[in-house]
Each structure stands twice: as C-alpha cells, then as structure tokens.
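From the pipeline queue, job 12 of 40. The input is one protein chain; the requested action is below.

Action: predict structure.
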Amino acid sequence: MRSLRGILALLVVLVALGAVLYITTRPKPAAPVQERPYVWFVDMLELAKMTISLPPEGLAQQWVKHQDQYWYFDTPGGPKVDMKRWGGGIPLILSGPASNRRIITGATDDQLALYGLQKPSMHITLVLKTGQTINVLVGDATPDQQARYIKLAESREVFTVDATWYTVLERLVLDPPYPPPGQQ
C-alpha cells in the first residue's frame, strides 16, 4: 500500500508539473490584425479620368478612359498609354490606397503646413463615371522617408501612405507612359 501511495503522489506531482509546463510554454494568441484605413476607396472600374500634377515642378499629366476601356492621354488625339509601363496597376493604386496609419483628425492649418499639405508636392484629381470628383493632396515625406502624408482636399484628416506609392505616381508625370514610336 505504501508503494502505491508513493506512486500516486509521484503521479500527482508529475501531472501538476506537466500542467505548469503546458501553461507557461504554450504560444500566446496572435495579436488581432488591425485593418488599415483607406484614405478613399472607389471601384477602379468607375474611374473615368485621372490627373496627377506636381505643383513644385509645374508638371501634370491627364488620362481618360475611352469606350474601348483603354486609357489614353487626355490631349486632342491623345495616344493610348503604353500598357507595358502602365499595366493594370495604375487604376488600382488610384482607386484608393490603404493608409499606413491615420496621423490626425481635425488638423489645424499649422499642422497641415507641418505635413506639407498647405503646399502639396502632388495633387491628384480623379473623376468617376458618375461625374463625382475626388481631390487628393500629397505632402512631404515622413522623417524616416518611408511614407508620405496624404489627405482628401476637403478633409482635415491626415494619413500616411507608403513612399513607393508616391514614387510610382510621380514617375507617371516625370516619365509619362507614352507608347513606343510607331505604336501611336
């Protein structure tokens, strides 16, 4: 009987140690993924016209979607954009970027100036098939140069978007996606 009690006591100690070990070493649940807020969001198929301007450089480009569903430069007799450079991605990234984070709601004029949004480095105008217009202002780079400040023109809510988003759109103005010679 005595050895049976000893075995049972040892078994109880082992079960208790196992429980403690299980509780202390089990993985912690993953942190809930927070959805990134969108600065704006529209169906990319609803885009009818896009304008990107770089006010500091005094440069701008405009594109319009024709009935054939291709994008063309919005000039008289404007050529079709070079799809190898344009791809399907440009309307997609202009349909609404997911923000890295919301910086502030109800920003003052001084705060907007601090983020470069009083004198933006980029202005985007999107016209939807319905005629609705979306105006977007893109300001300075963040101190770490990894993002840009951005807001809707009529809003006081400031977000950041990835710096590469800005770079892709800037390149469309500085090096427009004209078709190669002979394909115009």
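Job complete. The radius of gyration is 27 Å.
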